[in-house]
Design a protein that fits this description.
The protein has 128 residues and is an all-alpha fold. The protein folds into 2 domains: 23-92, no CATH class; 95-128, no CATH class. The protein has helices spanning 23-34, 42-63, 69-92, 95-107. Helix 1 (23-34) packs antiparallel against helix 2 (42-63) and helix 2 runs antiparallel to helix 3. The termini are far apart. The relative contact order is 0.11.
C-alpha cells in the first residue's frame, strides 16, 4: 500500500481543542487521523503505526512493567503533542510554505539530493 498524502487533501480532524494530556487521549487523536478518506494517505499510515505502538505502551503502563511509568507516560504524551503540533502547523501553512518545508527537510538546508539549491536562496550551505 502506498502511503503518500494526496495533494490538496483536506486538513485532518482535530479531536481536541487542547493538546492531549493522557495516553488514551493520544490514542483517540491518532484514531481520528487514521480515518482519512484516502487509505494511501501518508499521515494516516503513520498514525496507524504510531497508534499501535502507543497502545502497546499504554497496555504496559497498566501492567506496571516500567520502572518509572509516570515518566514514560509524560514522555509519550509530550512526544505525541510535538507530532500533533507539527501536523497542525503544516495544515495551517499556505501551499508554498509547505513546499519550502519539504525542501528543507530533505537534508536540513533546502538543498535537493542532487546538490542544487532547492529554492531556499538564503541557505548557509549554498555554493558548497
Amino acid at each position: 500500500m502506498s502511503c503518500a498524502r494526496p495533494i490538496g487533501g483536506l486538513p485532518y480532524v482535530r479531536v481536541n481543542v487542547r493538546p492531549p494530556s493522557t495516553v488514551p487521549e493520544v490514542i483517540a487523536r491518532l484514531r481520528a487521523l487514521e480515518s482519512s478518506p484516502s487509505r494511501s494517505d501518508g499521515v494516516a499510515c503513520f498514525a496507524r503505526l504510531y497508534r499501535e505502538v502507543t497502545e502497546g505502551v499504554n497496555a504496559e503502563l497498566g501492567r506496571h512493567t516500567f520502572a518509572n511509568a509516570h515518566f514514560l507516560e509524560r514522555l509519550d504524551v509530550r512526544f505525541a503533542n510535538l507530532f500533533f503540533a507539527a501536523l497542525d502547523e503544516f495544515d495551517r501553512a499556505p501551499a508554498g510554505a509547505r513546499f519550502v518545508v519539504k525542501l528543507e527537510s530533505l537534508n536540513g538546508c533546502g538543498r535537493g539530493r542532487d546538490g542544487r539549491d532547492g529554492g531556499h536562496g538564503s541557505c548557509p550551505c549554498r555554493g558548497r
